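Figure 6 in text form: structure in, sequence out.
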């Protein structure tokens, strides 16, 4: 009888278990909500509205526009996880018809250049330069949501945390590369990997975390063939004065002598068997260069400062 009861209980549990649909995935740093069939991410770093838009875009998402009571309830819930980020977050909207945010709120003001950018060819996706972008217009209001889940309006150039959102239907799975991003280029037949050149700048740690969130890693050049593949991808990126270096998955432990560069898999370049350093590199200029980037003109390794902000290359390895 006890055995029969156990079987019946198991059948009931399986019948009432949540559908696999509730466990949809996007990036590992996004949370899925089955009621809205969408993914969300709270960015706790502060940004102006323009920078928030481009950051979400670089992640394949968009700045969240509250479209329902459920969206507002989700924001309220996210606030509870971050008690120290203040009382307001940026969202998308025109700010019309809402209360003004409190005057005692003192977000950081970004006095960047605000220079616009020409529209890129659809086949050429330029790197988004977040340095200097701004919403410096004292008359322009943007929507924010407070900790109580209420919509207010605030000056757009105020920097605040923000929320990115992507609908599940807009995040198709790339079967070949095993990603939810259409920005990955498949070179599986040649190297066994897919590659993505980020359209946003980041320091080395941020670049590492972004690739990891996509189930990938910062790219590593393992041989001459892979060097030529990555070089070809970089040559397709539209040139600008800012886009001259790209972080890769190699760095050294800081302030440790001798300096030993290792990959994100903890292999030395000698163990990898391929180390395409540019002329006179590595040189540890000023004694502070512990991370590695690719120079656009040569696509070869250069040691650089880890806190610098460059584009970066993610690699998603797949079986050949």
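Output sequence:
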């Amino acid at each position: 009888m006890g055995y029969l009861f156990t079987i019946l209980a198991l059948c009931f549990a399986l019948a009432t278990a949540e559908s696999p649909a509730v466990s949809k995935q996007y990036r590992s740093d996004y949370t899925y909500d089955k009621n809205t069939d969408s993914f969300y991410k709270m960015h706790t770093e502060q940004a102006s509205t323009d920078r928030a838009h481009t950051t979400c875009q670089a992640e394949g998402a968009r700045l969240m526009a509250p479209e329902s009571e459920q969206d507002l309830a989700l924001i309220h819930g996210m606030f509870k996880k971050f008690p120290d980020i203040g009382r307001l977050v940026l969202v998308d909207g025109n700010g019309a018809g809402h209360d003004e945010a409190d005057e005692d709120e003192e977000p950081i003001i970004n006095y960047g250049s605000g220079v616009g950018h020409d529209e890129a060819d659809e086949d050429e996706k330029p790197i988004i330069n977040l340095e200097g972008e701004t919403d410096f217009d004292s008359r322009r209001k943007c929507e924010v949501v407070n900790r109580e889940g209420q919509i207010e309006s605030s000056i757009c150039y105020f920097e605040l945390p923000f929320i990115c959102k992507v609908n599940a239907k807009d995040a198709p799975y790339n079967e070949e590369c095993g990603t939810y991003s259409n920005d990955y280029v498949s070179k599986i037949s040649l190297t066994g990997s897919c590659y993505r050149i980020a359209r946003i700048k980041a320091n080395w740690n941020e670049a590492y975390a972004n690739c990891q969130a996509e189930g990938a890693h910062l790219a590593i050049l393992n041989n001459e063939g892979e060097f030529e593949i990555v070089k070809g991808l970089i040559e397709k990126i539209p040139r600008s004065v800012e886009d001259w270096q790209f972080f890769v998955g190699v760095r050294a432990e800081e302030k440790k002598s001798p300096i030993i560069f290792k990959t994100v898999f903890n292999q030395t370049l000698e163990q990898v068997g391929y180390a395409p350093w540019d002329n006179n590199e590595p040189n540890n200029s000023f004694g502070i260069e512990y991370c590695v980037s690719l120079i656009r003109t040569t696509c070869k390794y250069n040691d650089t400062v880890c806190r610098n902000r460059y584009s970066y290359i993610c690699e998603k390895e797949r079986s050949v």
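Caption detail: The mean pLDDT is 79.
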